[in-house]
Specification:
Immunoglobulin-like; 18 strands; 33% helix
Length: 329
């Protein structure tokens, strides 16, 4: 059989392709590759309440696409420091631009960069005292651009300040731990909450959910949420305190659970309380997470209510988080 040039070429191409194919990846190299990819991916730490912390990987952090959220979640000191720094940087930038021109500012005092900086502050804030003013076309162009930037900066800053001040904040005090003890002969999960502002929250409603790891019939491990039925989930006028109760009976997802079993499944509670502030007529919501280590079994809350000799009721919030052991029945 004759060997043609075309067959030789095909054989050479096949051998070259076989040589270019990567060797089969071993389990160790695959694990190293995954670890390297995980290391290079952007990460973010999320605190879920209690001692539970989750680190997420691979989600892009689009700062400029979500800058409003970042600004709204900054603390007040960091927010004002950021605004002040941006204000100074803008004035330094425009002062430098003014200095690049040839005598762009009339009656500049003091001379040099410091006088240009003070003129930039007056221009950015649209104050205009009248002593210093642009005297060249270059100066007028730079001043026009700076006035536009200053008006935009002032409008954005005013809007963000209003949004931060007007955002409703619920001052709900949650007990540091949840307790489980008998109530009317039935084991009951109890969580104590108080209105720290002591104004009226109308139509307050509470939701309590259990989250824990569970294995499906197929053997997959999932974290599942279970709604816990409350003895009373609504409060018409929430002013002082509220004890939220869930009876642990045969229909409860907590039935048969113990401190050890809940820890084994990394169980926890998500407590949400919402209502309408009567003062501002705004809806508000507050949430608190309890890890399994924050649930005290066979404990009860210390009583915070007492009456003096004049018949006046007192609530001692210094004992709000205190508990004491309850003997098992």
């Amino acid at each position: 059989m004759a060997i043609t040039e075309k067959s030789v070429s095909r054989t050479f191409e096949a051998e070259s392709a076989a040589n270019l194919e990567p060797p089969p990846q071993t389990a160790e190299s695959a694990a190293e590759s995954a670890a390297e990819r995980l290391r290079r991916a952007p990460s973010h730490t999320v605190h879920l309440g209690g001692r539970r912390t989750v680190v997420t990987h691979g989600l892009p952090r689009a700062f400029w696409g979500d800058v409003y959220h970042y600004v709204m979640t900054l603390s007040w000191p960091i927010f004002f420091a950021t605004v002040a720094s941006l204000f100074l940087l803008l004035n330094v930038f425009f002062a430098t631009i003014f200095c690049l021109g040839d005598a762009a500012i009339a009656n500049q005092s003091p001379a040099g960069f410091l006088g240009a900086f003070f003129f930039s502050v007056e221009t950015l804030a649209t104050v205009g005292y009248g002593d210093m003013h642009p005297q060249t076309v270059y100066g007028h162009v730079v001043a026009t651009a700076e006035i536009f930037v200053g008006m935009t900066f002032l409008a954005l800053f005013t809007g963000i300040m209003f949004a931060r001040f007007s955002r409703p904040r619920a001052r709900i005090l949650f007990a540091a731990v949840a307790v489980v003890h008998p109530v009317d002969g039935k084991p009951t999960l109890v969580i104590r909450a108080a209105n720290a502002r002591q104004n009226v929250i109308v139509d307050a409603s509470a939701r309590l959910r259990l989250i824990r790891r569970e294995r499906t019939r197929e053997g997959n491990l999932l974290r599942k949420l279970h709604d816990l039925e409350l003895v009373r989930e609504q409060h018409p006028v929430f002013v002082l305190g509220w004890s939220i109760m869930h009876v642990i009976d045969e229909s409860s997802p907590l039935y048969g659970e113990t401190a050890a079993s809940l820890a084994a499944t990394e169980g926890g509670l998500i407590f949400t309380l919402e209502g309408v502030d009567e003062t501002t007529s705004q809806s508000m919501q507050s949430r608190f997470n309890y890890g399994h280590e924050q649930i005290r079994w066979q404990h009860a809350y210390e009583d915070t209510l007492w009456t003096d000799e004049n018949g006046v009721d007192h609530i001692d919030y210094t004992r709000f988080h205190d508990t004491y052991p309850v003997p098992a029945e």
